[in-house]
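step 3/5: co-fold with acetyl coenzyme *A
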Amino acid sequence: MIVRITGTGSMLPAKQVTNLEISQIVDTSDEWIRERTGIGARYLSTGETVASLATGACEKALEMAGRTAEEVDLILVASCSSEMLLPCSACQVQANIGARRAVAFDLNAACSGFMFALNTAYAYLQAGIYKTALIAGSEVLSKIMDWEDRGTCVLFGDGAGAVVLEADASTNAGRGLIGFVQYSDGSKGEALVCESRALHNPYYSEESKNTYVQMDGREIFKFAARQVPVTIEEVLQKTAIPKEEISYFVLHQANARIIEAIAKRLDMGLEKFPLNLDQVGNMSSASLPVLLDKLQREGRLDRGMKLVLSGFGAGLTYGACVLEW
Ligand code: ACO
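step 4/5: write tokens
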């Protein structure tokens, strides 16, 4: 069975905020942020939610795929910043778009969330359980940022991206998703944390917690620069595809310097590593599908092109996938 992406979509909040504007909130500068990260601006929610952004992205992806919501069997939303614990964002998306037949649930693997959700949906489709899946990565990270911590709040943005994934038995389907590798290393989880609300019940009360993102930036940098190239090489080896055949390495947009380090270790030209973090910042699980949608809508993806996708982030979690467009 061939499993392929047949549509992409994205939705960003209405308000874009430049580095200059951020420098009026915390002690920072456009120069510092650009030099260290490559980020020039990000979109921040002025009321948009994980569910509303995911809904917009999913509607656009369905439109591109030429599918109706009623044809969707499975909806997965990857997020680490949902505004509702119950119901999950995927069920809200299901209701919003009217995908009455779909099974819907959320998945949290931080910045690897979209990759892991893609792999999960792939397994369902490959097994013949479902035929059509909608996978979104959606984040409103601005609500879990400490807006007095210049070391983190300048890095992240809000937004959502989605793809339609279909099982296709036709002869001209190409190869679609070819192979995945994915890993988790919980022993290094403290490098990037965000605690949930404190336990408070009639029998036990915890101290109030810091419920904002706290990050050891250098540790994350080292992890990504070291582990991601190894993971990409592994998936290429597993699928027997030479790296020279890859048209684009579509990587999680954490930081331009991380991506440069990865390109160097892979010994591949930077022109094969598309970037959009200049305009959108780090959107965690939304990063990959928003960039994929941008490439598709700019006409840069042709049928038959081979791509590597790679996500990495809190957990720690990381993975890579090879696909034919
Ligand atoms: N503006 C100005 N100065 C700042 C800022 C800021 N926004 N943030 C930190 N500084 C200061 C610090 O206070 C410190 O000052 P000091 O020397 O007087 O104490 C100085 O800059 C250096 O701070 P570091 O934290 O050591 O800065 P570093 O050079 O490591 O850069 C950065 C920080 C950009 C976060 C870097 O560690 C990095 O790129 N890490 C990767 C992490 C990442 O991208 N995370 C994204 C989320 S995880 C993911 O998506 C996988």
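step 5/5: annotate
The chain is about 30% helix and 25% strand.
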